[in-house]
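Marked as duplicate of an earlier ticket. Keeping the data here for the record.
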Amino acid sequence: MGDAVRFSTNGAVLFAIACAGFMGQHGTRHAGFEKDGTQIMHIDSHFDSGNIEVVELLDGHTANLRIKKDAGDEHMQWFYFRVDDARDQDCTLRIVNAGDASYPSAWAGYRVCTSVDRQTWTRVTTDYSDGVLTIAHRPEGQMQWYAYFAPHTHEQHLDLLSHCQRSDEVTVDRLGGTVDGRDLHRLTVGEGPLQFWAIARQHPGESMASWWMEGFLDRLLDPNDAISKRLRAMATVHVVPHMNPDGAIRGHLRCNAAGANLNREWAEPTIERSPEVYYTRAAMDASGVDFCLDVHGDEELPYNFLSGSEGIDGYADSRLPRLCDVFASAYERANPDLQREHGYPVAPPGKANMTMCTNAVAARFQCPAYTLEMPFKDNANAPDPLFGWSPERCAQLGASGLDALVALAEVTSEAD
């Protein structure tokens, strides 16, 4: 990788609103003083990607909290908040509606992420029982952040685009607007005849996908990397690094501003409900697709793995199994953090969910396609007790993806 890798967790703009009063039992901020004059902790989520509600403060350093639901009221699990005025105090933070999350079984074995500077995120022992997720922690800073995974905010996404556009190797264009009117950008790199696509953050709470993009794009644009040079000569790579900026800013887990799960909109996307998919699919139609990688995170499984399109009609009798195996095998060789033993069940022939990106694109273009999943927890095959699965490891896995794409490009070119 080049020297331009930027783990820019400090790039977020924090819209923290100071308050001296008590906001009421269901507010998202709390500040005040106990009767003896001792200041109690303050909890805030009024910033980019923030999500938490304060139900009540039981005492100066114990709080009951709730995760707010996505638009559409179907999903919730992502949280991101800040605690002030509790440095060196034993705090107990109880997320009382954790049992109502979209994936409650995912809390088993999970450890929350915390940071003082939003640059380095470590893990905290976390307990889940009787539907309550409990974080028992002593903040090290006067301001301490807690999150489901290391956040990658909209400001960091804009920083990434700004950094990439400085390269002579890239063209940046606007595919269209989101539900809330934000821009959906594509980066196009390379001049080869093959058309490769990589997209991320259909599910906005899966911030590891943006960290993957940081590493992938950094290496793809490295003028001195022999693998990236080879790939750029053989393929044109279309990258949509953030499919769901509205949902990310709102602190959603899976949905956009209209309450749509974008990875269930690929059969019939509309400008009104899922413009992010509508415009991306239209751009794919214009370019053609020889391979598509859709980057995600998985709440439950503590592994990195690929999920394919085996269930689409005609898959087994086509060239797709061989091309998919070339990509997956090369990726596994390039980075041992990826494995193929654990993953999702394979759909039977003809039983693919055609509303999902990987299946829809594979069938529409008769091309190999994969969903890449990374863990919210840790890689159980190579655990890290301090950091868990981290932004740095996401980026390294992203960079390793180029080796797999070159291997696929070479085999595809030979077959054609």
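See parent ticket for discussion. Residues 9-147 form a domain with the Immunoglobulin-like fold (CATH 2.60.40.3120).
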